[in-house]
Amino acid sequence: MTSSRKQTDVSERPVTFRAAEKLGPFELAQLWSDRVAWPVAERTAYDELAELACMSALAKWLTLWQPIAIHGAMLAGAKPEALATALGSSLRDAYTRWHEWALYLREHVTDGKLGITEEEYETVARRFAAIGCRPN
User: Fold this and answer.
1) Residue 78: exposed, middle, or buried by beta-carbon count in 10 A (0-12, 13-18, 19+)?
2) Which residue in 37, 111, 114, 123 has the fewest CB atoms around it within 10 Å?
3) DSSP-assigned beta bridge partners for residue 113
4) What are phi and psi of 109, to 5 degrees?
5) Which residues contact 11 (CB under 8 A, 6 or more apart)?
6) Domain range annotation of the chain
7) Using one digit for the tens of pLDDT, what is the confidence trace for 69-84?
8) CA 97, CA 91: separation in Å to the nearest integer?
9) What residues have CB less than 8 Å from 125, skipping those under 6 apart?
10) DSSP character for 133?
11) pLDDT per position as a tens digit, 109-131
12) pLDDT (0 to 100) of residue 9
């Protein structure tokens, strides 16, 4: 294989959620997409546990990033219906995921900066409110 990406030795795959999570999201995604790392026939308990650990850790990362993508799509002017279709869920679910994340980041300061500005928050909140999504 002449790819520049790191190839994970099949015997070194993580078999716990914590070990998989430590790989980080991008290495997990590479491992998950590496068809050579996941035998199809004659699978062992190790194979099954490794795949489950990687799958579970990657799912957690992706779920954590969904509100960021929702926020970015709304700021970029995506139509709310297209956003729900991309998410594979309802507008209400998109709003709920975004709102919980946004409330936290609106007050979270890192390196002297807010996670999201009040202007960004209000812009997205207004777009959701225009389609009937508001806090309960």
Assistant:
1) middle
2) 111
3) 110
4) -110, 125
5) none
6) 10-129
7) 999 999 999 998 899 9
8) 10
9) 99, 102
10) -
11) 788 887 898 999 999 999 999 99
12) 53
Residue 74 makes CB contacts below 8 A (sequence gap 6+) with 80, 83, 98, 123, 124, 127, 128
Residue 80, amino acid: P
DSSP per position, 9-44:
PGGG---SHHHHHHH-HHHHHHHHH-GGGS-SSS--
Angle at 92 between CA 87 and CA 95, to 5 degrees: 75
Asked if residue 47 lies in contact with residue 41, where contact means CB atoms within 8 angstroms, the answer is: no
Helical spans, DSSP H, in the chain: 17-23, 25-33, 45-75, 80-87, 91-107, 118-129
Q: Per DSSP, what are the bridge partners of residue 110?
A: 113
Contacts of 122 (CB under 8 A, 6+ apart): none
Q: Which residue has the tokens 């869920």?
A: 89
For residues 94, 99, 100, 104, the Cα torsion angle rounded to the nearest 10 degrees is 140
